[in-house]
């Protein structure tokens, strides 16, 4: 196999890599025969869902697995075998020829040493440098990865860095010795989209500088589309498809890849198609089916699939491999996986226009400030965190409002203020026509009945000590419904679970099923408004699609209104009718979802949307990114006037006199046609998706 | 809004058929009981404790000797068919007094442990969940009891326990056992309170008291069961200690503590005066520990055993 685009001998060759934990019948075969190679300057993406073995494989390559893991096969770095090599020998390679960028940048840096010293240490371990030289080089590296005032920041400790800056520092450390291979294990998963865009940009720059090959491990199909040359799809510990990113995305040959691509909501597609979830759950690595591990979930499965595990073999040409006995048929177009999907039931006849529908939830100038105190015995107030600083929006009957923003923008605080049903510090919250500040106990109960919530983490939102029956019966009992039994059974059916599941505990279910139980609990009292706090962000893509479909179906069938809080802009585009973008405790832009996504007016919305990677390689490569500088300012000390001006690309482009207005005058959300509004003095539309 | 959830006809038919309704959903109590008796330790501990209770309460009814009777023909005789566990120096029957002592010790130990653990759970959970004044007052009381010399107060109060007032003794014992646990419970409640399932219950309209009893305390059950188990031993030993010094259980009544205290003097040349009482104390604590372990596993759905 020769690669026309990346000539030269492979720098990293992985052959028949297997990793097994434990032994005997309970042995977990986490990786089962992984083969790949990367050449200088090439970027290989390894994608797969949680539990597919992608991270374990990369740890095995680095020799970082615990001793009880049994690793076999071969890992050759520049022709030298790494498997079985002594730690001392490996140490000569690690950091010098091969380096790694981890997911969690906080735990990748030692908290008690200065960042600059840690980078300098990475240098002096492998190079013969004096302390001063190493320090100087560390500052250069920090400058290279885009840390402002690098000389000053080099003396800071990791906890003084924000998440994005820490990840930059880790990248600086990874490229310090000009390695030949950089393994990135989910390098941007813990970061917000605008920071993710910055970090990916830094990684690209780092690759250009060093000419290294990158192995990019991620579950985000959008990141892969724009960043990698070749992609390897893993499922149940095995590679199931390898090929160039264009071929795999546009002509996938393995039903799993097809399913994965079909289940991702797209930022650039507005129409209300149903997503195609993959049925079922990934198999447990301790109990794999005898045949193709994907067979139980595959829409194209035939009886032969159950006989033996199909090998990975070339299909279209020597560089596109797939592990499916029907790959040939798929390639010729004889069969496709386009499934017949149950249509979303139509929502009655034509919905009345928005203005004439009832306001289910009205929020006006909501304020929530937290006092910032210091001192253990005598608490003094040293400042105020303005978590929510005057937020207004309304949600009408039968509508989904997406509340989006990056971490720290105040979206969760807004949600909690609404759900608490207590008098807000400032402003008004009106639920179903009732102002929550004047509620008496009985009214509060009836509002609670109409407004329910689904949380993000399906593990912690269900009491582990209660059976599913008790969990679902709890809201019914709290509102004095007699005989919850039949209702519990209906609810389980409604969310696609079996009534027999009622006797089990939450831990017996997978993440997607648990989230369904959470949804069933929220629907138990037939509410009219459901507040969803990141309901799908903890789930894998293929599972996520099923839950999104369920939410859409329930909304249409039961006439619900959703307040949908999320940081994933693609999911919001898919599910929401209207969207409100928050930045630092304020609404930046609000309007119809298609209008906001197609013609965003606020510079922040524009930057946010342009930062979201699309799972479409050609489009993704052609896109122009608006990179925001720096991090979110602290909500304890927000900038005067427009809160976005410190990072605003528009602010930099306008003249001195116009800038004065941004500094001194707080922009209100002003109408930009229809119910579309943006909080910017100089808003203009820009096509970014 | 009702009526939006429409079910197809076949589902309705399924519902009205008797088989459809029969989704067996056991209550939490029954699940815990099944899992408790499904484990070896649970069965053994329960059987052991049941036998001891039976022996302590039913034994004296069929045994010819009462605990106040004296056999003036047999002083300090080893076990024999007429005196199963032998006799004391006074001619009292060891079996009779041991059973009488066990009655007291079992009741006092188990009750004091249950009361103190329940008190710790409730005080700690309420203080941690409500915070504010509830917390301040409850923790102030706990701190106050921590600094009071428990042994001294019990000793001073001992005349009150004389005339069959053992329930008061149980309460007093429990009152000095709960403080440390309640502080632990309070701390755990603080972190539990932020968990999403508690928030979910709150936003559902479940009353705060109900949340404490249905969500907070069951999720601390592992800690509480272990604590109760330890408290049984602690209560029995405290009672033993008090009785040894002549406080606590007053003569002519006896407890395992007074028996061990008396028996230890003659243990070297008349082992039966000491070892039966001491052995039964050990067996009691062992049975309680077995039950505690099994209960902890039964309460915890993620425990691997007993499933």
Automatic annotation (TrEMBL), chain A:
Example GO molecular function: ATP hydrolysis activity
Keyword annotations of the record: ATP-binding, Nucleotide-binding, Transport
InterPro entries in alphabetical order: AAA+_ATPase (IPR003593), ABC_transp_ATP-bind (IPR050319), ABC_transporter-like_ATP-bd (IPR003439), ABC_transporter-like_CS (IPR017871), Oligopep_ABC_C (IPR013563), P-loop_NTPase (IPR027417)
UniProt keyword Glycosyltransferase present: no
Keyword Hydrolase applies: no
CDD domains xref list: ABC_NikE_OppD_transporters
Domain ABC transporter per the UniProt entry, residue ranges: 12-261, 361-609
One GO-annotated biological process of the protein: peptide transport
PANTHER family in alphabetical order: D,D-DIPEPTIDE TRANSPORT ATP-BINDING PROTEIN DDPF-RELATED, TRANSPORT ATP-BINDING PROTEIN
NCBIfam families in the cross-refs: oligo_HPY, PRK10419.1, PRK11308.1
This protein's name: Oligopeptide ABC transporter ATP-binding protein OppF
Native species: Sinosporangium siamense
Name of encoding gene: oppD_1
Automatic annotation (TrEMBL), chain B:
Superkingdom of the organism of origin: Bacteria
Primary location recorded for the protein, binned into one broad class: membrane
UniProt keyword list: Cell inner membrane, Cell membrane, Membrane, Peptide transport, Protein transport, Transmembrane, Transmembrane helix, Transport
GO biological process: peptide transport; protein transport; transmembrane transport
First and last residue of the signal peptide: none
Family: Belongs to the binding-protein-dependent transport system permease family. OppBC subfamily.
Name by which UniProt lists this protein: Oligopeptide transport system permease protein OppC
């Amino acid at each position: 196999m020769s690669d026309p685009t990346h000539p030269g001998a492979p720098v990293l060759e992985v052959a028949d890599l297997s990793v097994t934990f434990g032994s005997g019948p309970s042995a977990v075969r986490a990786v089962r025969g992984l083969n790949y190679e990367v050449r200088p300057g090439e970027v290989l993406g390894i994608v797969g869902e949680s539990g597919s073995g992608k991270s374990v494989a990369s740890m095995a390559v680095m020799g970082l697995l615990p001793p009880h893991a049994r690793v076999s096969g071969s890992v050759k770095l520049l022709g030298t075998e790494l498997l079985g090599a002594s730690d001392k020998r490996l140490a000569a390679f690690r950091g010098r020829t091969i380096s790694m960028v981890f997911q969690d940048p906080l735990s990748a840096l030692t908290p008690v040493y200065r960042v600059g010293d840690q980078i300098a240490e990475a240098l002096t371990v492998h190079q013969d440098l004096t302390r001063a030289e190493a320090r100087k080089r560390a500052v250069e590296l920090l400058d290279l990865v885009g840390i402002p005032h690098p000389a000053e920041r080099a003396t800071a400790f990791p906890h003084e860095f924000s998440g994005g800056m820490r990840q930059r520092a880790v990248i600086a450390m990874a490229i310090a010795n000009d390695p030949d291979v950089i393994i990135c294990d989910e390098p941007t998963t813990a970061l917000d989209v605008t920071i993710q865009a910055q970090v990916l940009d830094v990684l690209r720059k780092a690759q250009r500088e060093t000419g290294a090959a990158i192995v990019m491990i991620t579950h985000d199909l959008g990141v892969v589309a724009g960043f990698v040359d070749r992609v390897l799809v893993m499922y149940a510990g095995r590679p199931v498809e390898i090929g160039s990113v264009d071929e795999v995305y546009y002509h996938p040959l393995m039903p799993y890849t097809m399913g994965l691509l079909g289940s991702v909501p797209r930022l650039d597609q507005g129409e209300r198609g149903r997503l195609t979830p993959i049925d079922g759950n990934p198999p447990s690595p301790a109990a794999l089916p005898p045949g193709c591990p994907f067979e139980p979930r595959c829409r194209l499965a035939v009886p032969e699939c159950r006989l033996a595990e199909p090998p990975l073999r070339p299909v279209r040409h020597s560089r596109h491999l797939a592990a499916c006995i029907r790959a040939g048929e798929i390639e010729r177009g004889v069969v496709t996986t386009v499934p017949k999907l149950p249509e979303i039931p139509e929502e009655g006849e034509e919905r009345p226009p928005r203005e004439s529908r009832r306001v289910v939830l009205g929020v006006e100038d909501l304020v929530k400030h937290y006092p910032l105190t210091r001192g253990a015995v005598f608490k003094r107030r040293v400042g105020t965190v303005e978590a929510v600083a005057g937020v207004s929006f309304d949600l009408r009957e039968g509508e989904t409002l997406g509340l989006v923003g990056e971490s720290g923008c105040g979206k969760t605080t807004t949600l909690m203020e609404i759900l608490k049903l207590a008098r807000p510090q400032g402003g008004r919250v009106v639920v179903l026509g009732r102002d929550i500040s004047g509620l008496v106990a009985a009214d509060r109960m009836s509002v609670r009945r109409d407004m329910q919530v689904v949380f993000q983490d399906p593990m912690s939102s269900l009491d582990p000590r209660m059976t599913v029956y008790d969990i679902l019966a709890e809201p019914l009992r709290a509102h004095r419904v007699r005989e919850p039994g039949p209702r519990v059974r209906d609810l389980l059916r409604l969310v696609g679970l079996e009534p027999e599941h009622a006797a089990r505990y939450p831990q017996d279910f997978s993440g997607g099923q648990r989230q369904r139980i959470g949804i069933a609990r929220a629907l138990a009292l037939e509410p009219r408004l459901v507040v969803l706090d990141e309901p799908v962000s903890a789930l894998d893509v293929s599972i996520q699609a099923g839950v999104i479909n369920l939410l859409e179906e329930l909304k249409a069938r039961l006439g619900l209104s959703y307040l949908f809080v999320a940081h994933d802009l693609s999911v919001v585009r898919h599910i929401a009718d209207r969207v409100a973008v928050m930045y630092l405790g304020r609404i930046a832009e609000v309007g119809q979802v298609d209008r906001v996504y197609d013609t965003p007016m606020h510079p922040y919305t524009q930057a946010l949307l342009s930062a979201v990677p699309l799972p479409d390689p050609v489009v993704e490569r052609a896109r122009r990114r608006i990179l925001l500088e720096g991090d979110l300012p602290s909500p304890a000390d927000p900038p005067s006037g427009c809160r976005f001006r410190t990072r605003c690309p528009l602010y930099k482009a306008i003249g001195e006199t116009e800038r004065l207005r941004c500094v001194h005058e707080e922009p209100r959300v002003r109408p930009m046609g229809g119910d579309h509004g943006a909080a910017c003095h100089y808003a203009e539309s820009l096509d970014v998706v | 809004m009702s009526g939006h959830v429409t079910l197809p006809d076949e589902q309705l038919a399924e519902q009205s058929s008797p088989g459809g309704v029969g989704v067996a959903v056991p209550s939490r109590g029954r699940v815990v009981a099944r899992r408790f008796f499904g484990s070896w330790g649970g069965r053994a501990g329960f059987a052991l404790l049941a036998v001891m209770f039976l022996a302590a309460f039913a034994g004296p009814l069929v045994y010819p000797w009462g605990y106040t009777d004296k056999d003036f023909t047999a002083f300090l005789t080893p076990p024999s068919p007429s005196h199963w566990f032998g006799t004391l120096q006074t001619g009292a029957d060891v079996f009779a007094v041991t059973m009488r002592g066990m009655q007291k010790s079992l009741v006092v130990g188990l009750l004091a442990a249950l009361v103190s653990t329940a008190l710790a759970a409730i005080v700690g959970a309420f203080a941690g969940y409500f915070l504010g004044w509830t917390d301040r007052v409850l923790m102030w009381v706990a701190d106050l009891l921590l600094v009071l010399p428990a042994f001294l107060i019990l000793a001073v109060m001992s005349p009150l326990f004389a005339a069959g007032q053992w329930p008061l003794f149980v309460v007093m014992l429990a009152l000095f056992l709960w403080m440390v646990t309640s502080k632990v419970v309070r701390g755990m409640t603080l972190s539990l309170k932020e968990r999403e399932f508690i928030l979910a219950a709150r936003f559902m309209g479940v009353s705060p008291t109900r949340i404490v009893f249905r969500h907070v305390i069951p999720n601390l059950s592992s800690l509480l069961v272990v604590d109760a188990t330890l408290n049984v031993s602690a209560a029995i030993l405290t009672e033993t200690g008090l009785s040894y010094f002549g406080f606590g259980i007053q003569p002519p009544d006896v407890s395992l503590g007074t028996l061990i205290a008396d028996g230890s003097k003659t243990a070297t040349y008349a082992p039966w005066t000491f070892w039966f009482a001491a052995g039964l104390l050990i067996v009691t604590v062992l049975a309680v520990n077995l039950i505690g372990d099994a209960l902890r596993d039964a309460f915890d759905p993620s425990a691997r055993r007993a499933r």
